[in-house]
């Protein structure tokens, strides 16, 4: 029988610690490096879970923050720096998504899980927003309907790399 | 005298067989209300399953102008005789005719009528003219054949969710607050919004706002090929995709008159029951999570993982997507799968026992779950089906009363609750999981051999050329949350003319919004997750 890969978010995080940061002598570059290091290692995600792909995400990363696992309440979007959009976005939901994106802090990353938000996926009706990236700059897009656990983990790895270099899509929009 | 003969003697020639059901044709809208009332009071059609509207405007273009534009089908159910009846009426709305509302006969007609007004512009009076699924700035009625998308630029003024209660004494007005949860909340299976009017901890009025996940599946079905649609029906109840697409394929096969091989039938039963186990475990996990217990969540999650593993071995999709196709199945059984699943079944059974052992002895769990009771009368009146109905003590399961595939040959029982509260719903779900495991092991023990897909059929099964003859069908199956029905109307081409999905969550949600007043606010998430309202199915 085929085995489901066992993946954890903490395994994805890079092993390099604070000691790597000492390799600089200039204070401004040290500070920016430190800032990136903090961002990489304490990501606060907000899952904009509208539909099916969110359950794929939860099935891998749900017990990442153990103390939050017991409550349905998680962090508010206003206090998080990673927006995970998973599931179809329709015209009734779209204004809310844009509002949430605006209310988030200035430094933020956006991950899209599943084909729906970027292209409508299998749904092509009157009510589906065809492409959210016109209004919301997207960092990582994980395609699939739904994407498998490996794809989601690989996407998250890429995101961590972006974070460690301080690259974010919202700067270039 | 059977109910069919009784009906035949009253309605004479108006009783025909159409779309697989006995159908009463009403010729004028004036007679609609009286006929429906007669059917409910004298013939025992106490449950309204769905109201299906069809826009006939370009069905056959050379038709004479006297043809009526709209068709309305009421699907009614007599629960004692297990008899389904369709009441059909054709009419025009040229001079803004308002149809009689049947909300005083069946309470659940309210949302159905709102949906019909929203999608077709057929009004049932003032109460029905309120948008349910589509955004407020949408112009027109989406499911009409001449609909083109246009959104008005005017910002719609957000109305208060509750009208002011004028009968309230003045000193009380400051004590009443409005609370809303959603549209994004980790406890929801999808996205919707719940508005409450609360006094202290107690809910006075509640209103469910939906449409945040309305994907217009019914509209896009009209542009898609029959074979493509099963990818969309997979996403209705996304925790049990396998059972949904089995329902769709069964409906299309009934429409085209395809008889699938025995092995495919048996395997479809297996994947349906696996999906049921997984979905019930997911529902229990979310209920436990809402109460804040740790242990049970992990056990229920393990059950979900085990089922995911068996699905993963079939075609690489852990949720059971894309398993069935029109005319059979999409996969051949991997070598050793049966042995593996039988050993998984054993482990799942142990986990089920563990789950009820851990939870049933905890007083906290029992007390916490005595919320949102629903009695049998209300449940039938609100059209609730599936485990939620059975937990009220109504013995009704399509697998027993009108068995399809091999459900009549396997040995299983229907668990029933008494009080219809969240605790009973939990007990019924755990027991149904055990019964599903029984069914799976019985079917796997005597799995018929042969092909898993029809090979020499009279109808061309090629995806592009598959086109059933001009007809219509209403076909139902016992999906995880209750009766999942598909009404398909075909005009002879390779795309369906009209598809209506009778989603069980739609009616559970309607019942849920009426169950809450009088309960405490912190119980609402527990009751919501115990009703297992999946928004993908609710909004479609």
Oligomer: heterodimer
Sequence of secondary-structure elements of chain A:
HHEHEHEHEH
Radius of gyration of chain A: 17 Å
The portion of residues assigned to helices of chain A is 25-40%
Number of strands of chain B: 13
Order of helices and strands of chain B: HEEHEEEHEEEHHHHHEEHHHHHHEEEHHH
Class by SSE composition of chain A: alpha/beta
Q: Helix share of residues of chain B? A: 25-40%
Q: Main sheet of chain A, how many strands, which sense, barrel?
A: 4 strands, parallel
Beta-strand content of chain B: 15-25%
Adjacency order of strands in the biggest sheet of chain B: 1-2-5-4-3
The class by helix and strand makeup of chain B works out as alpha+beta
Poorly predicted ranges of chain B: none
Strand order of the largest sheet of chain A: 1-2-3-4
N- and C-termini, Cα separation of chain B: 40 Å
Indicate the radius of gyration of chain B in whole angstroms.
23 Å
Largest sheet of chain B: 5 strands, mixed
Mean pLDDT rating of chain A: 75
Largest interface chains and counts: A-B, 38 and 54 residues
Helical region count of chain B?
A: 17
Residue share in β-strands of chain A: 5-15%
Task: Sum up the structure in keywords.
heterodimer; A: 173 residues; alpha/beta; four-stranded parallel beta sheet; 6 helices; 4 strands; B: 540 residues; alpha+beta; five-stranded mixed beta sheet; three-stranded antiparallel beta sheet; 17 helices
